[in-house]
Amino acid sequence: MVSILKMNFEEKRKRLVESLKDRGILSKPEVIKAMLTVQRHKFVPRDAESSAYIDSPLSIGLGQTISAPHMNAMMCEFLELKEGEKVLEIGTGSGYHAALCAELVAPGNSENPGHVFTIERHEELVNSAKESLRETGYEGKVTVIYGDGTLGYPKEAPYDKILVTAASPSKVPLPLRDQLKEGGILCIPAGSKSFGQNLYIIKKLGEDFKSKKVTGVRFVPLIGKYGFES
Ligand code: SAM
């Protein structure tokens, strides 16, 4: 068996994906393919590259993190992303999760490519995410927007799927109600600012929202008009 210290990034990525499969976190073939394809090490700071394929969140500066791979995998599985869909992500961070979503809605040879719109409140992260997405070939499939994601992005609404990657005080922030398509899915961590958060999968059915609590989580807070105060 090759020692992890001697593995290249691709080998480490495969090893991580195998362990997520073994733990029952990854099962959908298209999500497995996306996790095997997107180069997570290109989305983390240089000095953290060697840790990119450990199942752990990593600092990306400004007190923010790139989520642990099992959380990315879990959210992608629950969102049931399909080719051609329009996705809104709130909390671009490194841009990695947006790239995973793009791999699912707009795979390489798609004749019906979807698109990912992602919003980030820190301008420095907007710039570094754009750079990583350009370097990894996702520039044309992901639009990174600088602003308060709690307002959503009405210009491109409605969305098939909405993904929130910071903890919200409410399960369905008001502006997102209208920006999700009928039958659409919202995946969102909600609860208190630091502890006692849960991940919810919420389906829009007419005027109602059917919500399912998935698991306890710990995310950085969603800061904005319909989020927490900074
Ligand atoms: N999805 C990211 C990735 O793949 O690296 C990880 C996101 S990190 C856990 C949460 C991000 O949400 C942070 O970058 C934070 O600045 C951002 N954020 C928090 N409140 C926000 C808001 N109202 N609008 C946009 N971004 C926000």
Structure in words:
- With 230 residues, the protein is of the alpha/beta class.
- The chain has one domain (2-217): Vaccinia Virus protein VP39 (Rossmann fold, 3-Layer(aba) Sandwich), CATH 3.40.50.150.
- It has 6 helices and 9 strands.
- It has helices spanning 9-22, 29-37, 69-79, 96-105, 123-135, 174-179; strands at residues 58-61, 64-66, 86-90, 115-120, 142-146, 159-164, 180-191, 197-205, 208-217.
- It has a 7-stranded mixed sheet with strand order 5-4-3-6-7-8-9.
- Strand 3, helix 4 and strand 4 (115-120) form a beta-alpha-beta unit.
- The radius of gyration is 17 Å and the shape is globular.
- It binds S-adenosylmethionine (SAM).
What's this, in brief?
By secondary structure, the chain is an alpha/beta fold. It has helices at residues 9-22, 29-37, 69-79, 96-105, 123-135, 174-179, and strands at residues 58-61, 64-66, 86-90, 115-120, 142-146, 159-164, 180-191, 197-205, 208-217. The protein has six helices and nine strands, in the order H-H-E-E-H-E-H-E-H-E-E-H-E-E-E.
